[in-house]
Write a structure and sequence with these properties.
A hairpin with a 5-residue loop joins strand 13 (297-304) and strand 14 (310-317). Strands 2, 3, 4, 5, 6, 7, 13 and 14 form an eight-stranded mixed β-sheet that branches. This protein has a four-stranded mixed β-sheet with strand order 1-12-9-8. Strands 10-11 form a two-stranded antiparallel sheet. It has ten helices and 14 strands. By secondary structure, it is of the alpha/beta class. It has helices at 4-16, 31-40, 47-67, 86-97, 111-124, 137-146, 165-176, 195-201, 208-224, 285-294, and strands spanning 21-22, 75-80, 102-108, 129-130, 133-134, 150-155, 184-190, 233-240, 245-252, 256-260, 265-269, 274-281, 297-304, 310-317. It has two domains: 4-40 and 196-281, no CATH class; 47-191 and 284-317, Vaccinia Virus protein VP39 (Rossmann fold, 3-Layer(aba) Sandwich), CATH 3.40.50.150. Helix 2 packs antiparallel against helix 9 (208-224). It is 39% helix and 26% strand. Keywords: Methyltransferase, Transferase.
Length: 320
């Protein structure tokens, strides 16, 4: 088991010593953060989940066929960041209906989310063979390299947009590295659209996204002995249609000091200084093809919702 607290402490030390200060959205997803994100996905402003659901409902059989090995035989369906698996269950049902022999290997950093997912699968799909892994992506990618047989890797929900462009390319190359020619990737991409709709999706009227962002400070208080006063922080987000980037921040509303006992260090924050916490990039279909090619991958098939808001893209290595 990875030492999450140790990795978190190192990350916070490095991130808060930078200018501008930054923390990774990867650490949003403790058990509380995962629960808040489940609420976000149901918000009226948050279109990506509904759009991807519609793709799975309309194209589920075609997706299952595109991910299954053409030569037949057993394979593993590995999902990075499985969450509650709601969309994936549609795909799992299609694979089971087709009589495909496979193992579902969900990966999530939240033990609570994984426990809930495995229990729901046991009740809803008792015939399914499940091999869960509570892990971060880096550990899961290492495990992928040692997994025998054919595999299809899922990375859904526009999570690919959370990476900085350089890190995104590196991540895709790491995903591509263990793939055999018959293996497949299925990645969800949020597509560029009305900038106002995009911004609203990350700054909802009910304040759930703000609570999700601020929960990161609550986690640091709990796990690292920090003394962030949440009353002195606020959530802010904006969207730049020139580069397709949503950027989210935690804003210090007062000049203040924050002590982090695990680091034995005190950090100074000026009034209105920000901590950059998340990127969420939006793409065009052409950009997706160019990104795939740069990572040593090719687009096999693309599935979009009726409104063209979202794309689930099946990828493979460049050589059959």
């Amino acid at each position: 088991m990875i030492n999450v607290a140790s990795e978190l402490a190192q990350h916070v030390a490095e991130g808060l010593r930078r200018t501008p200060k930054t923390l990774s959205s990867m650490y949003f997803y403790d058990d509380i953060g995962s629960q808040l994100f489940q609420q976000i996905m149901k918000l009226p402003e948050y279109y990506p989940t509904r759009a991807e659901f519609s793709i799975f409902r309309e194209h589920g059989a075609a997706l299952a066929a595109a991910l299954s090995p053409q030569a037949g035989g057993a394979f593993a369906l590995v999902e990075l960041g499985a969450g509650d698996g709601a969309k994936t269950k549609l795909l799992l049902r299609e694979l089971l209906r087709a009589g495909t022999a496979f193992t579902y290997a969900p990966v999530d950093i939240s033990e609570g989310a994984m426990t809930g997912l495995v229990e729901s699968l046991r009740q809803e799909l008792p015939a399914l063979h499940v091999a869960p892994l509570v892990s971060d992506y880096a550990t899961a990618l290492t495990e992928l390299r040692t997994r025998p047989g054919s595999k299809a890797v899922l990375f859904l929900g526009s999570n690919i947009g959370n990476f900085h462009p350089t890190d995104r390319l590196d991540f895709l190359r790491k995903l591509a590295f263990p793939l055999a020619p018959a293996d497949r990737l299925l990645i969800g991409f949020d597509l560029q659209k009305d900038p106002r709709r995009i911004r609203a999706a990350y700054d909802d009227a009910q304040g759930i996204t703000a609570a999700f962002n601020l929960n990161l400070l609550t986690r640091l208080n709990r796990e690292l002995g920090a003394d962030f006063d949440l009353a002195k922080w606020q959530h802010y987000t904006d969207y730049n249609p020139l580069n397709g980037a949503v950027r989210s921040y935690l804003v210090s509303t007062h000049a203040q000091q924050v002590r982090i006992e695990a680091l034995d260090e005190t950090f100074e924050f000026a009034a209105w200084e920000v901590i950059h916490t998340e990127n969420s990039y939006k793409f065009t279909l052409r950009q997706i093809e160019e990104l795939a090619a740069e990572a040593g991958l090719r687009v096999v098939e693309s599935f979009t919702d009726a409104a063209g808001d979202f794309a689930d893209v099946v990828l493979a290595t460049q050589h059959e």
